[in-house]
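Here is a typical protein record:
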Amino acid sequence: MILPAADLVPINQAILPGYIAGLQDENWDVDPEEVRAGYLGSLAVRSALTCLPTHLLAEPHANGAENTWVQRIELTRVIADLVADVARAAARDRTAR
């Protein structure tokens, strides 16, 4: 099953605070924005860059190929938008220094 792109935002909103709370429970003094940047960076590398079904390029009219492409592109866009928020925040921090 492919995760609908719209489901990623609420999942992200649940995972990140829980992960940060777990780190703090283990006495890790963490900057939540650094944790968010690392989490989203790994999400981008692991998922956004690998979820496009390039294997379907050889069979563009295969059963369901178009729908798969649409779903995966939507998912990649949501991930890119989440990462863009982190990149903009980092740019603001660099400018403020």
The chain has a mean pLDDT of 83. Residues 63-97 form one domain.
